[in-house]
Specification:
The chain is of the alpha/beta class and 220 residues long. The protein folds into 2 domains: 9-125, P-loop containing nucleotide triphosphate hydrolases (Rossmann fold, 3-Layer(aba) Sandwich); 131-216. The chain has 9 helices and 5 strands; from the N terminus they run E-H-E-H-E-H-E-H-E-H-H-H-H-H. It has a 5-stranded parallel beta sheet with strand order 2-3-4-1-5, with helices on one face. Strand 3 (69-75), helix 3 (80-91) and strand 4 form a beta-alpha-beta unit. Helix 8 packs antiparallel against helix 9 (206-216). The longest helix is centred in the C-terminal third of the chain and has 16 residues, at 166-181. It is elongated, with a radius of gyration of 19 Å.
Length: 220
């Protein structure tokens, strides 16, 4: 059964491949997607403040053929500046705009941003399970710090942070967080949370963040 869309902003755990599912949901609600000038779809590796401002400008424009404009945004990462800019749009949404924000892990967003959107689940399968698992979480947690640093190499094989597979990194962090949450290792959870919080910031140094996890998270 397809959920009814009565709100103006929805938060979805997923990635660019989730976009067709959102389109199917809209069509089930009687909203034509194909060739519709009021449907705005974009996928980003990094959603920055410029993209957030552009989104607000487009959302403020009058709909062309429909009663409302629909924005489907899939982003592997979103900077804090972008989230704060997006927050203004969500707090004072244009009356005819509907937003679908798709990110690998909703928890990566600021709580203030999450609170302005309804959580929408399109599949019982966790999106992070679709992302490439380059590091085995169980083996990582049971390994020594020295071995962990070696295991992180597949995630850090590119020297340029902007070219690294951020989807794989986020999937790894999400898997770590789920596993650690089952135990009592609060210190380990804090280290993972800190990395997930800052890894998408503009200018963030991914390598030191992951290395801190390797050194600080207790062996399980």
């Amino acid at each position: 059964m397809k959920p009814s869309l009565s709100g103006h902003a929805y938060l979805i755990a997923g990635n660019e491949e989730t976009i067709p599912s959102v389109a199917g949901l809209l069509e089930a609600q009687g909203i034509e997607v194909r060739g519709n000038p009021d449907i705005y779809v974009r996928a980003y590796a990094q959603f920055g403040v410029d993209e957030a401002r552009e989104l607000r400008e487009r959302a403020s424009a009058r709909a062309i053929s429909e009663e409302r404009r629909v924005f489907i945004i899939a982003a592997l990462g979103m900077t804090k500046e972008a989230q704060n800019a997006l927050l203004k749009t969500l707090e004072e949404p244009p009356g005819n705009a509907m937003f679908f924000i798709i990110v690998p892990s909703p928890e990566m967003l600021l709580s203030t941003v999450r609170s302005r959107m309804e959580r929408l689940v399109l599949s019982s399968k966790k999106p992070t399970e679709d992302a490439p698992q380059l590091v085995d979480t169980s083996k990582f947690l049971s390994a020594t710090p020295e071995k962990r640093l070696d295991m992180l190499k597949p995630l850090l094989e590119k020297d340029d942070d902007d070219k690294r597979d951020i989807g794989a990194i986020l999937a790894f962090l999400a898997s770590l967080e789920r596993t650690l949450a089952k135990g009592s290792g609060n210190e380990g959870l804090r280290a993972v949370y800190r990395a997930r919080k800052y890894v998408m910031d503009k200018g963030a140094l991914v390598k030191p963040l992951l290395e801190q996890i390797a050194l600080l998270v207790p062996r399980v």
